[in-house]
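Good day; I would like, with your permission, to put a structural problem before you. A protein sequence and the structure tokens that stand for its backbone fold form the material at issue. The record follows directly beneath this note:
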Amino acid sequence: MEIGLYTLSDLSSVGVNGQSVDAHTRIKEIAAAAQLAEQAGLDLFGIGEHHRLDFAVSAPAVVLAAIAASTSTIRLTSAVTVLSTADPVRVYEEFATLDLVSGGRVEIIAGRGVFREPFSLFDCQLEDYDALFEEKLALFDQLNQSARVTWKGRFRAPLNDAEIAPRALQPTIPVWIGVGGSPDSVIRAGRLGLPMALAVLGGPYHKAGQLAALYRSAGQRAGLAQSLRLAINGHLHIAESSQAARADFYPYYSQYWVDSTPAKSPGPRIPQEDFNRSITQSSGPFVGSPAEIIDKISLLHELTGMDRFVAQVDIGGMPFNKIAGMIDLLAEKVIPHVRGL
């Protein structure tokens, strides 16, 4: 099983230590975290796309290019590319260029997005939310397959034997579908035979198992079961003991949900008792001692048959020294026990 990290680049507005984090510092720390992840033997590093002042990264390909220059083996991905509001031609060209820069290490996680801002910013209608994604995903597939494309659709100017340059170093850029839990999105990923990155941000893990089964069933009906791969993405915090992990993570976790809501207004702070109750062996964010994290990942693998586990460890204004320490714990005390699942 592959293990990776991803970041959404959130900027805590208050910061648990009483200081705000600026975008310049945040991006430097993200690049440093990617370097540490490669040194620790992780397989993947992903960066999300947001178009708000409370996030540092709106152009993942640019930051990933900087990371590519200081790494050599770790795979690099968006997490996610909001394809519904983007021009697939430009997305392909940017990530093909990144693939050349990185020596063929690039992937894309394509998603519909959960924030409203990109729709108004890029002149897209929210009521076309799903149709935009379906059409642009199909166009991206054509661009990925051929250097010359003829195409016509609803939401973009036609292409007539258009040259799509440059071409990626890989024969095609791997594309995963990012899914937040919508059964329709799960079925679409399976029907198209595309790898799926499923967010598991809370709640009982058996729901992820049900969605994994739905995904594979859709792939089998489409005759594409052989091409299916599944990643589970979620929040992770490790400490030497269960109690220390919960106590240390709660302030950052609760701050993250206050700041980073799609509605762009402060969300309610999660009561600490509710947070503690949400974390069991089979539910909640991935918080605990190394042994607990091993058990959680192993259970999720049993329930879902996942091929990847990708963790977000840097939320709510968490200081970089804590993030670096967690990468070390993950590499030293967790990965050796779950890599072979």
Observations:
- The longest strand covers residues 230-238.
- The radius of gyration is 19 Å.
